[in-house]
Write a structure and sequence with these properties.
The chain has 203 residues and is an alpha/beta fold. It contains eight helices and nine strands. 44% of the residues lie in helices and 20% in strands. It binds guanosine-5'-monophosphate (5GP).
Length: 203
């Protein structure tokens, strides 16, 4: 059997630009499985069912959860979000790296179950800049933007639980930092401990 893939859990407040960073970092679909979450929120313009999210009703979400088909889940700004369990497990077992882009409560659940995952938090340069980006994006009204800013502040308070913290100020630098994190994560002791015995075999 091939070696298990690495699990990357990435949190960043909504509007941090994580989508742009991740599409540049994890751009090899044959090596990386990008988990598509379930959500009960309505699709935004340009969002495609099965690509950006699996858009489901609250009843469907609850049914999947009750069946044990949801790895982690959370309520965020009045909607439910969750990670389908089976694709994550199958891809890791097949040796593919898996990326979960989830908020902090879901990340807490994954940390408890799979502490070997690599946890990365992407910070905005400031709360003011985050608000500006959300308003500019124009996918939420002013009240919803303020809800998301308040949510972001709460999420940022949890950033200290993550293995790596990046700031998305300049995109190019953030992408470069992210690639550095991945290189470092691959060299972690717990992932390479077997190499010691391998080298010592003919000592
Ligand atoms: P948005 O509505 O902007 O697409 O996502 C809102 C928040 O939900 C983001 O912080 C995003 O990372 C998070 N999110 C997306 N999918 C999941 C999921 O499957 N589980 C959890 N816990 N959070 C998710």
């Amino acid at each position: 059997m091939s070696e298990r893939g690495m699990l990357y859990v990435i949190s960043a407040p909504s509007g941090c630009g994580k989508g742009t960073i991740l599409s540049q970092v994890f751009n090899q679909p044959d090596k990386v499985f990008y988990s598509v979450s379930l959500t009960t929120r309505a699709p935004r313009e340009n969002e495609v069912d099965g690509v950006h999210y699996h858009f489901v009703t609250k009843e469907q979400f609850e049914q999947m959860n009750a069946n044990g088909d949801v790895l982690e889940s959370a309520e965020y700004c009045g909607n439910f979000y969750g990670t389908p369990r089976i694709p994550v497990e199958e891809n890791l077992a097949a040796g593919k790296d898996v990326v979960l882009e989830i908020e902090t409560k879901g990340a807490d659940q994954v940390r408890a179950m799979m502490p070997e995952a690599v946890f990365i938090f992407i910070l905005p340069p400031s709360v003011a800049e985050l608000r500006r980006r959300l308003l500019k994006r124009g996918t939420e009204n002013a009240t919803q933007v303020e809800m998301r800013v308040a949510q972001a502040v709460e999420e940022i308070k949890n950033a200290g639980k993550y293995d790596y913290i990046l700031v998305n100020d300049e995109l190019e630098k953030a992408v470069d930092d992210f690639k550095t994190v991945i290189r470092a994560a691959r060299l972690e002791k717990r992932k390479n401990i077997d190499l010691i015995d391998e080298v010592l075999k003919d000592a």
